[in-house]
From TrEMBL:
This is Aldehyde dehydrogenase. One of its GO terms (biological process) is aldehyde metabolic process. PANTHER family: ALDEHYDE DEHYDROGENASE, ALDEHYDE DEHYDROGENASE TYPE III, ISOFORM Q. Residues 13-426 form the Aldehyde dehydrogenase domain. Keywords: NAD, Oxidoreductase. The lineage of its organism: Bacteria, Bacillati, Bacillota, Clostridia, Peptostreptococcales. It comes from Romboutsia hominis.
Length: 449
């Protein structure tokens, strides 16, 4: 069956319809229309899967996607033009240009945490690039997956865009097939499986993975504003965000002030009992709920820590006195637990972060430009913010992606178009003149070079 879907898509691609820029523009507009017309269904599904309030669902999923579509519609004509480049004098007379051509049939595999945005956002790049796409949403966000199936089936031809639902067994079958590009968002472990499978056909991949993203609060930081922005970024989606601040590294002199302010903002945002707040999401499933509860065991919980098993909710939780020997520092937390590590000298920060190399994101709160330069120059990370959290991913002008264990490749804005197109370099030579130096016999020609 998967083979049939793929064969259909190949036929569709080979019809060359998707190479027409007006076709692509039309499909981007259709996608936008589909989202706008089904906004309520999408928001309801996100609420059912993750307890996301409609505001949060719009802010972090629908809004971001609509912005990306608008950006692609605005720029697609200029992105897709052949790009002329200069030709070295040694090639004279000739012209050189680069053609951005679609890969063909692409696979987009998405996780459950932003199940709408992380399925549809890569699709925008795939459409803009002129590809046919197979979408594979996560089996854990069932309601959003269903809405995606409904929308895609209603607004697009099956040969052009197809959604395949299913768990590990289905994923494994899909990955046995040959695609022209695989765009995967998910965990490091599954990322390795995907890359391994892709190697069978040498299929190019983008891997958007996770990792432990540090949040550094330096002595000169505006503590009140830092606390507010950290609480927002960490507890959005109950911490189930790939770029959530994973742990805090704070200077010892401002730690107490930071904790007091974070407590103030947790109450301000979610009330005295956040697990009852309608604005505070739930944990995706029991497995993750249990995993997070285990991470809290034998730690110094100073704020939160309370849970509601029936609703799968864990309150925003701050854990003090952590070092690298705690299990919570072994893996990406991916939930609303925020451990705090204290530092004395800013040069120690690098050693702390290097225990988990190449984080997906890094956040630094500081007013000190020298320290800003020191940290950003000396730590390798995917991307991040100075004096804020998360929002670097909501800017179409900034490519988003990891490095090393947090991923490879990037997307958003023009980078999405570039990711989903092969750059075909062409040198067009004139027939008028033919400079003979390059041809044999070579005797005596070396001195001409
Ligand atoms: P996951 O790796 O378990 O699942 C991602 C996708 O892979 C899903 O579609 C799933 O069905 C499929 N899958 C799962 N197991 C598989 C297997 N054995 N073989 C083949 N396919 C399989 O990830 P998740 O739990 O859904 O998401 C959480 C992870 O994703 C976190 O590590 C997070 O940091 C990361 N993430 C990264 C980004 C990013 O943009 N870099 C965004 C969101 C989430």
């Amino acid at each position: 069956m998967i083979k049939d879907i793929l064969n259909n898509q190949r036929l569709y691609f080979e019809s060359n319809k998707t190479k027409d820029i007006n076709f692509r523009l039309d499909k981007l507009k259709t996608l936008k229309k589909a989202i706008v017309e089904n906004e309520e269904a999408i928001l309801n599904a996100l609420y059912k899967d993750l307890g996301k309030s409609h505001f949060e669902g719009y802010e972090t999923e629908i809004g971001i996607v609509l912005e990306e579509i608008n950006y692609a519609i605005k720029h697609l004509k200029s992105w897709s033009k052949n790009k002329k480049v200069s030709t070295p004098i040694t090639q004279f007379p000739a012209k050189s240009y680069i053609v951005s051509e679609p890969y063909g049939v692409v696979l987009i595999m998405a996780p459950w945490n932003y199940p709408f945005q992380l399925t549809i956002s890569p699709l925008i790049g795939a459409i803009a690039g002129g590809n046919c796409s197979i979408l594979k949403p996560s089996e854990f966000s069932v309601h959003t997956s269903k809405v995606i199936v409904d929308i895609i089936n209603k607004y697009f031809e099956r040969g052009y865009i197809n959604v395949i639902e299913g768990g590990i067994g289905v994923n494994q079958q899909i990955l046995e097939e040959r695609f022209d590009y695989i765009f995967f968002t998910g965990s490091v472990n599954v990322g390795k499986i995907v890359m391994n499978k892709a190697s069978k056909y040498l299929t190019p991949v983008t891997l958007e993975l996770g990792g432990k993203s540090p949040c550094i609060v330096e002595k000169s930081a505006n503590v009140d504003l830092s606390a507010k922005r950290i609480v927002w970024g960490k507890f959005l989606n109950a911490g189930q965000t790939c770029v959530a601040p994973d742990y805090i590294i704070v200077h010892k002199d401002i730690k107490k002030d930071l904790i007091d302010n974070m407590k103030k903002y947790i109450i301000k945002f979610y009330g005295n009992n956040p697990i009852e707040s309608v604005d505070y999401p739930k944990i995706i499933n029991k497995t993750h709920f249990d995993r997070l509860n285990n991470l809290m065991k034998n730690t110094d919980v100073i704020i939160g820590g309370n849970i509601d098993k029936s609703k799968l909710k864990i309150a925003p939780t701050i854990i003090d006195n952590i070092d690298h020997t705690y299990p919570i520092m072994d893996e990406e937390i991916f939930g609303p637990l925020l451990p705090i590590i204290t530092y004395k000298d800013y040069k120690d920060i690098i050693e702390i972060v290097k225990k988990h190399p190449n984080p997906l994101a890094l956040y630094l709160f500081t007013k000190n430009k020298d320290i800003e330069k020191y940290i950003t120059n000396n730590i390798a990370f995917g991307g991040g913010c100075i004096n804020d959290t998360i929002i670097h991913l909501a800017t179409s002008n900034l490519p988003f992606g990891g490095r090393g264990t947090s991923g490879m490749g990037s997307y958003h804005g023009k980078k999405s178009f570039d990711t989903f197109t092969h750059k075909k370099s062409i040198l067009k030579k004139s027939n008028l003149i033919d400079i003979p130096v390059r041809y044999a016999p070579y005797k005596g020609k070396l001195k001409l070079l």
